[in-house]
Amino acid sequence: MPELSPAIEVQNLRKLYGSKAAVDGLTFSVPRRCFFGFLGPNGAGKTTTIKMLMGLAPPSSGAIQLLGLSMPEHALEIKRLIGLVPDESLLFDHLTGGEFVEFVGRIYGLERPVARERSAELLELFELAGDRKKLIAEYSKGMRKRVAMAAALIHRPQLFLMDEPFEGVDAVGARLMKDILLEQVRRGATIFLTSHVLEVVERLCDRVAIINEGRLVLEGSMAELRGASETLEDAFVRALGVERTAETLDWL
Fold first, then answer.
1. What is the pLDDT of residues 59-85, one digit of tens each?
2. Which residues pair with 16 in a beta bridge?
3. Which of 4, 90, 205, 216 could form a disulfide with 37 if both were Cys (CB 3.0 to 4.6 A apart)?
4. 37: number of Cβ within 10 Å
């Protein structure tokens, strides 16, 4: 595995649904040990892109390399090296959080005692140990996101693919999750994150790509995108070309 290869490299990626291109000729690269934000308005193609990176949706054309390995040729090897937090938390509602995290560890090949020990430690880390007997069906959305992230961590992946990981998470839970993710980057992991919350991306990410209608419209370091005085929100609105004076209603 080439050590100096990017964590993610996408070349001319397209995904068609009928005659409509949800992703249309996307090319970008994510360096290793980077916290990378992938942004765009609703319907821009973010979730479709991350599903192709996860191997959940085959591309219509183009090339994907993760950690120096080509998809789908090395899909099984790649999946052992990545941690996934999909937008829809695909959890087993009739397991407890601890049972689910342990199960994911076993899927990744951990021995049962190791998976059980790591599961218990992760529940403590994500402040879910007090609910260890509660079924996931009884979890709030924020708790589901935390247990999904715990499961993504159990095999110590090199690359995380995360689709809206903070959606529905309260401020305390989000702060906890952010701190854990930043520590993973410090230890050498790479994180690819989609989020609608620009303040979160601005605080966490080193680099950002913005897409619209399935195409890349802006990419660069956070400093490059913001310029001297802009916020990320300013850069985002300008990149999409939708900046305009807010209209008012006489009666409102």
1. 999 999 999 999 889 988 998 999 998
2. 21
3. 205
4. 24
* Distance, CA of 57 to CA of 147 (rounded, Å): 24
Under 8 Å between Cβ of 102 and 116: yes
Range of the domain at 143: 90-156
The amino acid present at 117, given as its one-letter code, is E
| pTM (predicted TM-score) | 0.88
- Listed in sequence order, the DSSP H helices in 58-195 are 75-79, 97-107, 112-125, 141-153, 171-186
Contacts of 37 (CB under 8 A, 6+ apart): 193, 194, 195, 201, 204, 205, 207, 208, 209
Instruction: Tell me: do 119 and 174 sit in the same domain.
Output: no
Q: How far apart are CA 36 and CA 204, in angstroms?
A: 9
101: Cβ–Cβ under 8 A, 6 or more apart, which residues?
118, 119, 122, 123, 147, 150, 151, 154
> How many Å apart are CA 178 and CA 184, to the nearest integer?
10
Please list, in sequence order, all residues whose beta carbon lies within 8 angstroms of the beta carbon of residue 124, skipping any fewer than 6 positions away. none
CATH of the domain at 46: 3.40.50.300
Average pLDDT for 20-49: 92
- For position 2, what pLDDT does the model report? 47
172-231 pLDDT, tens per residue? 888 898 999 999 999 999 999 998 888 888 889 999 999 999 999 989 998 888 775 578
For residue 244, is it within any domain?
A: no
